């Protein structure tokens, strides 16, 4: 008998669980964590605080946050064996391939890797949140033939990453700008990589397997690679005076514009509004106004032409320019996405597996129903 149930392509609109972590209203451009608007998190909080709040399901006390921050700093260093693996990776590999391999290998080195209890998952989550930035910075340095820089314990999570990347202590403004960018990317509901992590976790697999699965999902250009593609577009445009003609032709030819449109949002992505203001500030301060002016022109044309269809700039539209101004190369934009999203992945995993049910969807069968085996020698 054929299953006649309706199919939700891409699982759009399908509900499979409950969550208290993140709420999105795409029609009105609303994003909240624990009921608090993302704009307030970006303005008042830090990556460390938001990470702990999602893991706990509530705002932490000052003492809880201080202890969590101390735990993160204590776990920043990665095993020497993993450092050697990173150094030995082939030059020119995709950074997300390198990250996927490094995280999987990190699991081999963790004697508690198979602990799937709530306490075990939380301890591993804390270590991975701490070590992701060290791993990504090490991959970047090694791929460029540079010495890997050990983490410092006296810098913020964001500031320490920028330090490990360049060997220079960032300014307070640079650290805060990067911190805000991380806050904006920490969690975003049941996106493809979070769902993938949960699907793996629902089998009661270990945390490292779950996060490796998530990295594989994030690597895809339809999920994590859009901000890199935006920078490619800006380089293709070249100068602000060419932006309007460029984007008008794209729209006339019905070509996809990277950083524009979102599966959930039918209005401005609220994260893009925060990043736009910071992108403008940095561009004006650093004299790097070309990119910003191009984006400003593209946004205006896009909103005028197709905004009525619910297509607006998303978080990737401005994030690349912010990262670029911080000295981060575009091939590392997606790993930076993972550096932030590791907290959301872990929090969602812990929340779901606390009341776990194996995810096992079905498919409508459309193949033959009355076929019979034909011996190999009799096949045409």
TrEMBL record:
Entry GO terms, CC: cytosol
Where are the active-site residues found? 262, 316
Catalytic activity field: oxaloacetate + acetyl-CoA + H2O = citrate + CoA + H(+)
- Tell me which UniProt keywords the record has, alphabetically: Transferase, Tricarboxylic acid cycle
Q: Does the keyword Transferase apply?
A: yes
Q: Which Gene3D superfamilies match?
A: Citrate Synthase, domain 1 (1.10.580.10), Cytochrome P450-Terp, domain 2 (1.10.230.10)
A single BP term in Gene Ontology: tricarboxylic acid cycle
SUPFAM superfamilies of this UniProt entry? Citrate synthase (SSF48256)
Under InterPro entries, the record lists:
2-MeCitrate/Citrate_synth_II, Citrate_synth-like_lrg_a-sub, Citrate_synth-like_sm_a-sub, Citrate_synthase, Citrate_synthase_AS, Citrate_synthase_bac-typ, Citrate_synthase_sf
The pathway where this protein functions is:
Carbohydrate metabolism; tricarboxylic acid cycle
Instruction: Output one GO MF annotation.
Output: citrate synthase activity
Q: Which family does it belong to?
A: Belongs to the citrate synthase family.
PANTHER family (alphabetical): CITRATE SYNTHASE, CITRATE SYNTHASE, PEROXISOMAL
Name-wise, this protein is: Citrate synthase
The top of its lineage is: Bacteria, Thermotogati, Deinococcota, Deinococci, Deinococcales
